[in-house]
Amino acid sequence: MGPHPAVAAIRLAVRRVLHDVLTDVATRRTLTPHPGTPHVPHPPHEQPPPPLVLVACSGGADSMALASALAFEAPKLGIRAGAVTVDHGLQPGSDLRAAEVVTRMTALGLDPIESLVVHVGRDGGPEAAARDARYAALDDAAERHDAAAVLLGHTRDDQAETVLLGLARGSGIRSLSGMAAVSGAGGRYRRPFLHLDRQTARKACMVQSLPVWDDPHNADPAYTRSRLRHEGLPALEKALGKGVVEALARTAQLSRDDADALDAWAAQAESSVRDAGGLLECAKLYALPPAVRRRIVRRAAIEAGAPAGALFARHIEEVDRLITGWRGQGAINLPGKVVAQRQGGRLVIRQG
To answer: Where on this chain does ATP bind (predicted)?
Structure first.
């Protein structure tokens, strides 16, 4: 008799991602490290060590299900499996929670295991600040352990929430594309559960008798995502019927495909709209489709020092009017002390 369907589903999702990781590792190891230098394979007695894959585990149902599946699947593929838990220090007893997660990860046979304490700032609000601190800690752990990948337990429900949050911000198609299955430097972060719902992960934990910690922040109406989870999505399903989560997740994938294509178009077109000195020519920008032109403008603003997370659609629209609705208006201030202005038919974006 095979495993419970929920357990089988999470294991299959993880197995597929681990196969992808192995393929990527093999590709990187066979690439010539420097142009013109012949590749010298490892001698038999110096074979590279098995790749390490880490799981980011909070102790919640999603990440516990992910950790258990990684512990089960990784040894069969010759992969080392470890874990990282992040203590944000935002709740009383968070250190005890982190210690409990370490104990649970140890019981699953994961190694190495780290508990990392982070300082959460205030930039961008509490949720964004906590996310930034968490990813910085995960990046650091991955680099110290030379991990081939870090698995994250985001589910289809998380994806649907992310799409709705992007829609509320009005930030364009990239915001609607939600979370990528593969992201981060070198494809470090992998999200195996984006096609699985939250209940599947919770059911997998229950049938395996895995203890689960429910973060009280997830039910706190002070947080936007919590309100969306407990009030917004249920209201949408009541009004529109079941299937809203699946439809939003599908929208994310379609939007990502479109956004990737437009990003590639903008990258190819950028050199053609710059003059010999590298400045953007307004007349040539005007001739491009708006979606392509605004991507070029956004990239130029980020290169000038504007923080990507603080650069919203309204900022880009204001700069775009220097190209499409020029009436002698003055410079536009952007986040990061970046200034955009039109000078002699050129769009100049630089530090103020």
So the answer is: 58-63
Q: Give dist(CA 179, CA 227) in Å, integer.
A: 20
Binding residue positions: 58-63
Binding residues for ATP, by number, are: 58-63
* pTM metric for this prediction: 0.84
Residue 150 pairs in a beta bridge with 54, 189
Q: What is the CA radius of gyration of the chain?
A: 23
The amino acid at residue 98 is A
Residue 305 to residues 46, 109, 184, 292, 298, Cα–Cα distance (Å):
44, 44, 20, 21, 11
Q: Which residue has the tokens 């142009």?
A: 35
Q: What residue numbers bound the domain in which 319 lies? A: 274-351
Q: Classify the C-alpha dihedral 148-28-140-179 as positive or negative.
A: negative
* CATH value at residue 118: 3.40.50.620
134 and 28 co-located in one domain: yes
**Low-confidence residues of the chain: pLDDT under 50:** 37
Domain count, the chain: 2
* Distance in angstroms (rounded) separating the CA atoms of residues 32 and 138: 28
pLDDT on residue 219: 77
Q: Which two tokens stand for residue 216?
A: 């009280």
Q: Which residues pair with 281 in a beta bridge?
A: 346
In a domain, 194, yes or no: yes
Q: Is residue 300 within 8 Å of 350, Cβ to Cβ? A: no
| Cβ atoms of residues 74 and 149 within 8 Å | no
State both tokens at 341.
């202005």
Residue 221 lies in a domain: yes
- Enter the tokens of residue 43: 């001698």
| In a shared domain, residues 135 and 78 | yes
